[in-house]
Specification:
procollagen-proline 4-dioxygenase activity; single chain; Jelly Rolls; binds 2-acetamido-2-deoxy-beta-D-glucopyranose; five-stranded antiparallel beta sheet; globular; 2 domains
Length: about 300
């Protein structure tokens, strides 16, 4: 009996230590003696007043400007592909009408796509290399449809504090348009500089052959039901076996993934590419979420 009691109390003490005592100690004891004691603040009100805080750029981020929006109910279905990193396939994330409206809104705004360098940094020189990325991109005006999709993307992610939906861009791929393997994150979050925490890759127009979104480091799910959304190698005309997971472009559907581990470092498994379009035209929508905590401050 005494053994039993001490064992069972140990059983309770361990989680008590891990969940209560250790975090309390960490709050009380500064982890970095050089900088004293810090508090991490998720309160959005503080973003507006502190002049030590980062200036959020409305040209880059879809900030709340008080414009009222009325949105249709969500009407999508989700399938988890991977937990670590989190990768979720979303059927019907956009309705056909929404996808068409975004394609129409994009048409007057196309410019050649540049390679991604942290868009929040003040980097004004576009880096264009058509061997690595060949497509056109268009900044989408914040119409009611766009604002509803912003709201949907925030809701999907649990209205995470300090998460900002970047201004949305449509990407148009003609025949031979592609984007070689790359990451969407830059690795700046660990220094509290902010980074792209997640990506939604939405297909707005998929009247094409080829043009799949490939993740060579993700493991292909085994169930054949996935073949509706990913290439299974037995598709007509496709002979080569491709590594990892290749999502087929399907209008209105989306792939969501988290780019960052909880400690702010990037997931290597999010390495991905847009395979070349072989026939027709593909238009994609990138919804990137930027995570930007207010600067850590002295108490
Ligand atoms: C961005 O850089 C340009 C040129 O280097 C400079 O004129 C401008 O003031 C900078 N903007 C910000 C917000 O730092
Ligand atoms: C794609 O096609 C459109 C329309 O034909 C054209 O204006 C655009 O320059 C093309 N873009 C690329 C990258 O080839």
């Amino acid at each position: 009996m005494p053994l039993n009691i001490s064992l069972s109390s140990l059983f309770y003490l361990i989680p008590l230590y891990l969940l209560v005592i250790n975090p309390l100690l960490r709050q009380i004891l500064p982890s970095d003696p050089q900088h004293g004691s810090y508090r991490f603040d998720d309160d959005e009100d503080d973003v507006a007043d502190g002049d030590t805080l980062l200036n959020l750029n409305p040209d880059v981020l879809s900030l709340d400007d008080g414009t009222p929006v009325t949105c249709p109910d969500d009407d999508y279905r989700v399938h988890i592909l991977s937990h670590a990193p989190l990768v979720i396939y979303i059927e019907n994330f956009l309705s056909g009408e929404e996808a068409d409206a975004l394609v129409d809104a994009s048409i007057p705004n196309y410019i050649p796509s540049a390679l991604f360098s942290s868009s929040v940094k003040n980097d004004t020189t576009p880096n264009i290399d058509t061997t690595r990325r060949l497509s056109d991109q268009a900044l989408l005006p914040r119409t009611q449809t766009v604002r509803c999709i912003e709201a949907r993307a925030r809701s999907f992610q649990g209205w995470k504090p300090n998460l900002y939906i970047e201004r949305m861009w449509a990407q148009r791929y003609n025949v031979s348009g592609h984007y070689t393997h790359h990451y969407d994150w830059v690795g700046t979050a660990k220094g509290h500089g902010g980074d792209r925490i997640s990506t939604f890759m939405v297909y707005l127009k998929a009247e094409c052959k080829g043009g799949g979104t490939n993740f060579p480091l993700l493991r292909k799910p085994r169930d054949k039901k996935w073949c509706a959304f990913i290439e299974c190698g037995d598709d007509e005309g496709q002979t080569e076996k491709r590594e990892g997971v290749t999502f087929k472009p399907i209008k209105g559907n989306a792939v969501f993934w988290e780019n960052l581990r909880p400690d702010g470092s990037g997931w290597p498994e999010t390495w991905h590419a847009a395979f070349p379009v072989e026939e027709g035209e593909k238009v994609g929508l990138n919804i990137w979420s930027w995570y930007q905590p207010p600067k850590w401050r002295r108490r």
